Amino acid sequence: MGAEMQMRPAACPACAVAPSAEALADAEAPKDARLFLSLPTIHCAACISAVERALNGTEGVRNARVNLTLKRVAVEAEPAVTADRLVGVLEAIGYEAHELDPGVIAATATDKAGRDILMRIAVSGFAMMNVMLLSVAVWSGAADATRDLFHWVSAMIALPTIVFAAQPFFRNAFAVLRHGRLNMDVPISLAIALAAGMSLYETARHGPHAYFDAALSLTFFLLAGRYLDHRTRAVARSAAEELAALEVPRAQRRTASGEETVPIAEIAVGDVVLVRPGARVPVDGIVAEGQSEIDRSLLTGESLPAFAGPGMALSAGEVNLTGPLAMTVTAAGQDSSLHRMADLVAIAESSKNRYTSLADRAARIYAPGVHLLALAAFLAWLWISGGDIRLALNIAVAVLIITCPCALGLAVPAVTTAASGRLFRRGLLIKDGTALERLAEVDAVVFDKTGTLTLGAPEPTNLGDHPRRDLEIALALAEGSAHPLARALAEAGRKAGLHPARVSDIREVPGYGIEGAFGGERVRFGRAAWVGAQSGAETASWLQVGARAPVGFTFADRLRPGAEAAVAGLVALGLSVRLVSGDAPGPVADLAARLGIADWQAEALPEDKAATVQALSRDGRRVLMVGDGLNDTAALAAAHVSISPASALDAARVASDIVLLGKDLSTLSGAVTTARKATRRIRENFAISALYNLIAVPIALVGLATPLAAALAMSASSITVSLNALRVR
């Protein structure tokens, strides 16, 4: 079932929350419980205000704070306040919500790395400004003792600052050198260290030039670029952790003395677990008692609920819709199907993370070239000067500073920022720093069906074929059911201006449908077999009035806006398009025909989707995966690049590299075009950096590069790269 249907309170996985927050309190000295609820449908300041006002007005709630970026609310409440009670409060004001595991969330709640880089930027920026003020006096003609004094003061400011602020570059450089490799941080670290070291040496020898300001400028600007790059990556938290947070943390276990609420870790194979209507199934097991209908759309992509009765197997993560169930546990915790899916995602993510960015590939060539050039300059001037080590080192350091890869370091972040802004205005949020580069390389697209190419919201297709009385009876029965088809019929009936008939004694028969009495006759609305009808290829629910022959109400899933344009646009760009769905063959074949997709696969399990993507990758294809459900997360993580709608499940959005903020899919082909343009701009920036070096390096090699000239040249190249990046917009 797609995201639109998931937003409906009675049948959505979001309603399936753990029954208690008491496990978070100390048994001997109860403390406030801390609950985390995911809010996938909030999108603005008004949503924040409404949610916080509703929760803070709930008895027992101490404080509720919404994080719009993470679409999450943290609630501090008395131990007696339960998560399902808070979910009910939010559902009453129209917001979808479901509980997240606080233990898992706490592990990813802070961005220590980002704060660390910001702190180093602040320190280096403050020091840089002070040293530059001192340098003005030197450049203005200060000499002898006055010049030396300014140099020593600069050294006292610069050296401890460099030791502290440049640590990220030094650590990374040391790490790769230990393994016999080079990256961009090696020439950066060498330039900073030698600039500071030679400046100190020149100051001690009363030399006319010091490079303290240049060393600090390098550190500051490169840290700023590093932070921009970090922010683009920090948004993409681990999908495996998000999946773990979605697992139900507690379950209702039946014992000889009654029922008890226990953590999932205490559930053992053979225990009997109770699952109430509207709740997520907490473990894998076999139904022992009861009948119901199960929403498997998150795990399998099936658009219609499946019947569940004694002897049938259920998996963790499925949603019980209509009747209470008792199930015998076959697997729980780390052995459950939901946890196995998290493992699949983690493996796929680690594979994707091996992608090498354009900047890293350029660094493999650039870094050794810079080192060899500086070494050559040192040796040449050592020979020309007759053994003057001081002069040779100064020129070698100038070469390192003037060739320090500031422009190269900005080449990718500058373009990524500009292109991300362009795509954001078109409704696409880029989450990963290398997503644009990978999107530009794709040559194959794999689509999920329900919730992706369709909205996952079934609509009646033949209301006009039925008499008004039948419509009114069906509407009365449908309004008493939580089944997705019943809710779709009820919504369509109200929009058509129908009024429900006076049906009495309405009751839901779990797993079959709903029945009542009208005019002294029994009326039923539900499955074909229940009313004696013959089911066909179309999705349908059947109405039987008394002894009359049952009549069918057919339904079709609604296409997502722009789906046809998206498929046509991607094909026009030369990409092959494939549809892989967990739904039944009939609906999948029908949708593929409507969109002109010749290559499709139905009844695909999560493992099958991931295997399809991996098989295409092994064949040398670069795959774009577009999906929205829990069953898509492994495939999203395994793909070369992935996109999810904003209405997707949290775990799917986290596993994807790009989020579609609106409902319209037509922007996908434009995103690929923008990504290809951005990649061209990145390569142009590399060319600009190379041209800059061709001009600046000879100046440094002949000994004409003063610290001021080096700083100006470095700034000029960085500004040029940034201006070229803006052309993407």
From TrEMBL:
As one GO molecular function, the record gives: copper ion binding
Q: Name one GO cellular component term.
A: plasma membrane
Segments spanning the bilayer are 121-143, 149-170, 182-204, 210-228, 365-385, 391-416, 686-702
Topology within the bilayer: Multi-pass membrane protein
Q: GO terms for biological process?
A: copper ion homeostasis
Q: What is its main location?
A: membrane
Q: Which UniProt keywords apply?
A: ATP-binding, Cell membrane, Ion transport, Magnesium, Membrane, Metal-binding, Nucleotide-binding, Phosphoprotein, Translocase, Transmembrane, Transmembrane helix, Transport
Q: Which CDD domains does the UniProt entry name for this protein?
A: HMA
- Similarity remark: Belongs to the cation transport ATPase (P-type) (TC 3.A.3) family. Type IB subfamily.
Supply the PANTHER family for this chain. Answer: ATP7, ISOFORM B, CATION-TRANSPORTING P-TYPE ATPASE-RELATED
Q: What is this protein called?
A: Cu2+-exporting ATPase
